[in-house]
Amino acid sequence: xxxxxxxxxxxxxxxxxxxxxxxxxPELLCGAAIVLGCAFLVALKVTxxxxxxxxxxxxxxxxxxxxxxxxxxxxxxxxxYADQLRQDSEIVLYFFYAPWCGQSIAARxxxxxxxxxxxxxxxxxxxxxxxxxxxxxxxxxxFYFPVIHLYHRSxxxxxxxxxxxxxxxxxxxxxxxxxxxxxxxxxKLLDFLSNYEPGVVxxxxxxxxxxxxxxxxxxxxxxxxxxxxxxxxxxxxxxTDKRVAEEISLVHSGSxxxxxxxxxxxxxPKDIMNFTAENICKWxxxxxxxxxxxxxxxxxxxxxxxxELKKGPALLIFIPYNPLAEIHPLLDxxxxxxxxxxxxxxxxxxxPDLQHLGDSDSPAFDSSVxxxxxxxxxxxxxxxxxxxxxxxxxxxHSISRTHNVCELCVNQTLGVKPNKVHVPHCNFLEIEAAxxxxxxxxxxxxxxxxxTIECSNFLSFYSPFSYYTxxxxxxNRHFLSFIxxxxxxxxxxxxxxxxxxxxxxxxxSIPHIEDRNCFIPDLNISSTNITGLSCRTNKTLNLYLxxxxxxxxxxxxxGASRSTHLKEFAAIVDLKEEVxxxxxxxxxxxxxxxxxxxxxxSVLYSPLKRHLVDDPSVHFHEQHVVTEVTTNTFHKTVFLxxxxxxxxxxxxxxxxxxxxxxxxxxxxxxxxxxxxxxxRIDVTRNDLPWEFMTDRxxxxxxxxxxxxxxxxxxxxxxxxxxxxxxxxxxxxxxLSPSEPCTKECLHKESVLQQGHISHLERxxxxxxxxxSALHQAHDxxxxxxxxxxxxxxxxxxxxxxxxxxxxxxxxxxxQLQATYDQKNQELLEMAEKLHELADASENLLxxxxxxxxxxxxxxxxxxxxxxxxxxxxxxxTLSEDNDLSLSTATAxxxxxxxxxxxxxxxxxxxxxxxx
Length: 915
Hints:
Blueprint: H1 7-24, H2 26-48, E1 72-74, H3 79-87, E2 91-97, H4 102-118, E3 123-128, H5 135-139, E4 147-152, E5 155-160, H6 166-177, E6 180-183, H7 186-194, E7 199-203, H8 215-228, E8 235-239, H9 242-246, E9 255-259, E10 266-267, H10 277-287, E11 292-294, H11 304-309, E12 314-319, H12 329-342, H13 352-361, H14 371-379, E13 387-392, E14 403-411, H15 428-440, E15 454-458, E16 467-475, H16 477-484, E17 542-547, H17 548-558, E18 569-574, E19 579-582, H18 591-602, E20 627-629, H19 634-639, E21 644-650, H20 655-658, H21 661-670, E22 676-682, E23 699-703, E24 712-713, H22 722-732, H23 743-868, H24 877-914
Parallel strand pairs: 1-3, 2-3, 6-8, 7-8, 11-17, 12-17, 20-22, 21-22
Antiparallel strand pairs: 2-4, 4-5, 7-9, 9-10, 12-18, 13-14, 14-16, 15-16, 18-19, 21-23, 23-24
């Protein structure tokens, strides 16, 4: 018997051993399941995948600048074409923008203004870097807009990061155009070195070759400084005259000189550093002297002000500044104050090169010294030492009526000069070591009465190159009285002497090296009294300038008046102490005013008062139940008031504070106004003394009557509601439990509490009566509302009626208008007919006049004929009769025709009058 087996029956025996194998090895079964699952997911993904997202192409860009603008606008982002344009121009400015960027739109007008002034010297190119198909978007990856890049031939890019103002942009472009200032005379060199900004001078002789070695490197270093410091604080100048270069100790061509006002000027060390543009720029930036800095916050989130204020107390000076102006009188005064403030080493001429240049080249430079100082220099010839400090002997002779004063100097005749500049180098550590050694050996210089200078040399430490010289001389008492009469800014310890020259019991401390100015006046004393003050106090100020035309909002936050027209302001900000002081705005911002401001801050017990920022926008209303407190009214409302004061500290951004407003309004209505005041203060806009500030919002303080110094804070773990506040106020409005209370006191307290309770009961009764009155008013309002609704329905019906009448009147008006037009047309036709009749009557009148003339002429002719033919009268009787009859008939017919015409005219005229 044959059996037909299908293919499934044949495959079954083959699958059985595989299944048995999987049973013995379960990991194979898991792997197969994973593979099948992945295959199923892939198939599901392919079959059920949705269609691709449809994206809408971006709109084509349009011109950002006007076609008449001097700026070339590459609004499609053609960066390759911009590079081609740069190859043909010496100075190119790229303005990368995004069309949607508000700052780019605001800077567009400023760029056009600069381009209108410098388009003949600079090529201005604007590139749209936001168009996704442009090469600028693909090659440049800016994370902010706008971006300004400048190129000086092949050097660049030099990015400008300053304010987007036309004057500042133009100033920076001009600095890139002329990075080097040509100095041709001593007067120009003096002007260059007198500027408050650091100056780098290079000496290059162009006589030997048209391009001396190193000149291009120095030129490139000036561009490097602009690239690294967009503010351009370092100025570069070039000297070609050897005699002018010798004034600043530049002898060899290719030498570079860095001028510093308060510290030693430097010469570029070619033997240590390679003479490259990067090294020169790095050397100048590392060794520059910043006496006063410009701050230019860009307006966004930045740590610029925070980083600068962390360095120490800062004097912020706001002045209106125009970078393109040639002279700045106010800035010159501030610079002079800054130079005197940082001129620490008074015994040496801080700027001998400038004095030498002024004496030799500038006739206006005053190098004379007063007679008193000349005499003093004759008395103390030891001032010729470059680095000296005046000290006083720590002990006094019991018999001598004189006081020994010594000048401690560093002898620099030995050793190696720090550089080739004629300005000596003073090391503070060496002077301090010399001072310690001097006090250890001062007994060797003690003289009872001596009119000679006693000098001695001794080693301060083991060094074969440095010695210290101490020269002492006795000074008469009248000279010391002259010194003590000088005004100083520090209250230094005074030494009192009796008539016998003995020392009183007044404690005397050995003068520190910084206090030398208190004993002997400086030889080179200037018109100010703050010379070297930055080194004689621990409250050294950092000086900063801000353009008030751009950053006046910062001055207003510090306390400047918003209504002033002259935007000049100065404030000292001490971030560490969290205080700031404001210069009196009634005083003009000049040099002496700034000096007094700095001196008052620098003294040990400063007379300056912390400035508290007040909110000028607060308006006071007597009908408000909650009193609004500001900085100016805080003392009067809280401390001078004879009431219990509950004060809420809040801020506009505090949501929890806003939720408490209705509670404080209810509380103010409940409490008796003659005994309690409910107030609040916005601490973000009003500063208070430190003891009354808080670090948490909202905060509630209670100031009890007659015990305002014992203010109490509302507990933070209690919920702020009306019952808790009432309990808190009633509990702390009585006397403190820590004080002993007598029976009379307890009686008064109970009476006071009973008074409060009765007052609250009266207030509750008032509230109940007010609630009932409100219910009655609510019912009345409901009745009035129903009456108003009925009145509204009646008015609606009247409105519909009036609308129908309006439509009827409108139809009648249209009919009347049609009738009016018809009658008007008829009148026009009648007027035309009358005009025709008038013309016909005028013609008839003319014909009538002609006929009358003809009749008169005919009569005259007949008369003449009668006179001629009198003898023949008898013969022509028959003919004349016939003629007469004919003429008579003609005349009669004419008269009838005239009468008919007159009759017709009369009828027409009467008809016109009738119409």
